[in-house]
Task: structure prediction
Amino acid sequence: MSPHTCSVKSLHEELREKLNTGDPAHPWCRQKASEIFDLVHDVSQGQAGGDHLDSIIELAGHLTDQGPDAKCRELGQYVTGFVNRNHEEFLSHIHTHTCPTGHCPMLTPAPCQMACPAGIDVPSYVTLVGQGKYAEAISVIRRDNPFPWVCGLICTHPCEFMCVRGRMDSPIAIMDLKGFAAEKSMSARQYVNPEPLPDNGRKVCVVGAGPGGLTAAYYLALRGYRVTVIEALPVPGGMMMVGIPRYRLPREVIDREVSMIESLGVDLRLNTRFGTDATLDSLRSEGHEAFLLAIGAHGSYKLMIPGEEEFKGVLPAVPFLRRVSLGDHRMPGRRVAVVGGGNVAMDAARTSLRLGCEEVHILYRRSHDQMPAHHEEVVEAEEEGVQFSYLTIPKEIQGENGKVTGIVCVRAELSEPDESGRRRPVPVAGSEHVIPVDAVIPAIGQEVQSQGMEGFEQVDWTRRSTIRVNTVTMQTHQEGVFAVGDAVTGPATVVEAISGGKKAASAIHRYFEGIAQPTLPSVPVRRRRLAHFEAPAALKTDLQRPQMSLLGNERRRVTFQQVRLGLDDAQAHNESKRCLRCDICIRCGRCVEICRDKMGIDALCLGYLDFDNPGPTDLRITAERCIACGACATNCPTGAMQMTDQNGYRVLSLCGTVLNRLQLEYCEICGAVLGPARYHDYIMKRVRDISPEMSNRRVCLDCARSRSGGRHAEITPPRE
Amino acid sequence: MSQYFLFQDQKKCIGCMACVVACKSRQKLPRGPLPSLIVTVGPKWVGHLPRTAFTFMPCFHCENPWCVAACPTGAMFQRGEDGIVTVNPDLCVGCKTCISACPWGAPQWNPETGKAVKCDYCHDRVKTGLEPACVTVCPTRCLYFDTPDRIPEIRRERYARARAQDF
Amino acid sequence: MTFRQGQKVEIYRRSDDESWEDYMEEFMGMHGIITDPDTSKNDPDALIEVSLDEKGTHRLPQDCLRVIGQ
Ligand SMILES: Cc1cc2nc3c(=O)[nH]c(=O)nc-3n(C[C@H](O)[C@H](O)[C@H](O)COP(=O)(O)OP(=O)(O)OC[C@H]3O[C@@H](n4cnc5c(N)ncnc54)[C@H](O)[C@@H]3O)c2cc1C
Ligand code: SF4
Ligand code: SF4
Ligand code: SF4
Ligand code: SF4
Result:
């Protein structure tokens, strides 16, 4: 946790402490002070309205001006000063329901939302999908990411790695639900833009129409800026369009989402390269006052082996994939060797197969286990018939008549782990062999191409040849110039570029408005507070992550049709019910601790609560053991654990999951609700030694009192 | 049995509830919990006159308290020095077991704090030489707080009679 | 050490890398999961994506990380 504590929380606690210890003592002051306390309480719960802060200041003013004693006046002054000093933090609690320090339990975002680089409110949209409100889900997502459809298909989904349900069985299919909602609302024509603010007349130029640049353009346009995006290629989308192959991300998906951004009035100029077709001066003279560099990492590392420059047929993965995306569907060769074991290598190999290549080899220097490509990608490549040669190091490219004829490789063995634990491939002497191929596709990494960027003289570059920025604001060393995406991180992911674009948009806005820039990374904003679904523990446990159906393998080998076919309605709805709603339950573990350590009952088996040492989870065991005392619910700081009486039953539920349901008993005398029999038994067992015969008593508190009051009554005839 | 005793002379009580209110306000309780209560019995016809009795019902601070036995957390306890039965709010988890266990409904539920509260004979006041809040405010002076041996003779008798009806 | 997707890691020391920023001091001692290692060639010098428990997802240099647990 951050060393800085939340000001709202500390004022809340201070006032509570004061009131509890009888301070201030004067009843009028107490009244005012407790009104202030209630308002601060609302703020800390994210339930405050726009006028809460004014009311707090006004009440504090009353205390200061009309306070009958010094203590009272001091308190008024103190509150006023405190609120003024921490004005921004209070406003963020009120307007965005965000506690910037993450200390207010009711405002803590779920781990999936925290993990999403763009900070999407995952539990809210997952819930909306479950309710069939797809368009609403999309508008929640687009508050933080204007590419829900793209990301719903190809995101690296860090959220799913942090998903709490993953500690129980498997993570929620957060990404697939996003793609599902986007497709549904797009096809229902309900995928719409929010209303932008009126034109503010200021112009911003974005260089590069990848996800980073377009995201910034979207959020700037919504804020009323006039945005020009210049793009060197004839298509928008950056690596989404010219890197990621069509069988993973159909072109229409990018087209539709980009056109949503264009329709906000963003001026998208294709075939315009910065440095040649446009310069800093030409753009400045058009009135652009701020610049965002989002040029990606489109350069390729070389293999540095003989023959690489000499023969036709050597084409690095990035230009190869770009060529294919731009419509050149000629195969690179009948037999192709892709060098490298990463995601880009898989994409290049699978693309080659689809272009009709007869043999596609992936040559990788280390072993299968060490391949950096995502597991799924490797499996799909294997299924489609890509041949993998592990522990194979390319030495030389051979050719005849200027064309590639083969690649000379040596086999390698892995060394014993060195000090850093890394096992290096060591060439085996005499293991040279030639793999006959007529095309070689190096896929061993990309770099940022800085050529053409010289116009931005003060922009500083790192030793990794990326643009140096402050990663909180994405500002470069040159005033008014910002940079995002692969150009600052090196080859990374779409969602990180989007996250950068969003941060840059708000930093550019602050730059224009002259507002101080933040120094700490922002905490994601919760967009909704939706009620949870009610579901029995058995259903919650038994639902499984859906298996997405894939296109048939024959079709996959020969066409660029989408491989992953998406979820159907029932799968999506059930998946959303699996979500544990970690935006409500903050996994503090208080409930478990109380039931186990204080009550000695141990009815809650929620091993998933702990990130570091997750234990087993059994939602069904509660119904066997729980006595429905309600102590867990009483002490739950967020209301996630609830105990209610419903139709003759006492029900314990956690974020809507019904953990226990026991029939209620009623007072023999007045019919008032008593607890369930199991609760009664628990108590009777404990007091058996004092009064064994009491065990059948079913009398409520009030009746017990008045009955014994009656026994003590002395009604005697008036004295003579 | 606690070393103290709170005795009500029902003859004098007019059912004004001042004691009930004083008790609540000392413990700063919200709506709901009533650690002490005046139970109104009657009116009944006694001879040819309607009579009402007002019974003061705080906690009896039993010798062997049900609530203490029932409480799983040790929050409800009997003070060693004077036998007063009281709750340690830091330990209480709000399971309400004590409330359900007490045959006289003495422990009460404070919905604001989610913890049990009860009559504790105002031991904080008593320690400083004051009387319990209820005793102090009673306009008819019908409440007496003292050690049992100093409760006047007839009242002890009357009390004994009252308790005898109970069992 | 090469990091793999899904590994649990600890930020066990300050990085010597130029990409280490002031606000990252707060991350010291925190635990997280590798969400996007270098997916082209396991480059030990690349910045990699780590999702920290309760502190969001960040690109960090690898010299501050070590694998914990399994
Ligand atoms: C083959 C491949 C597969 C990938 N798969 C995935 C995946 O599945 N999931 C994922 O999350 N990420 C994936 N990525 C990474 C992802 O595509 C990038 O991280 C992301 O697109 C970076 O966005 P960006 O906006 O920074 O840059 P880019 O998307 O690279 O966009 C930069 C744009 O700037 C333009 N530009 C460059 N220089 C100039 C100039 N001088 N003037 C004008 N325009 C210029 C470029 O033409 C380009 O359109 C993949 C990358 C590749 C190469
Ligand atoms: S269970 Fe739901 S709320 Fe919790 S982390 Fe997973 S998706 Fe997010
Ligand atoms: S209500 Fe049930 S689960 Fe909660 S503390 Fe009581 S026994 Fe345990
Ligand atoms: S349900 Fe349990 S773990 Fe979740 S917030 Fe409430 S007390 Fe904490
Ligand atoms: S409510 Fe508090 S005092 Fe009463 S039994 Fe439960 S823990 Fe003990």
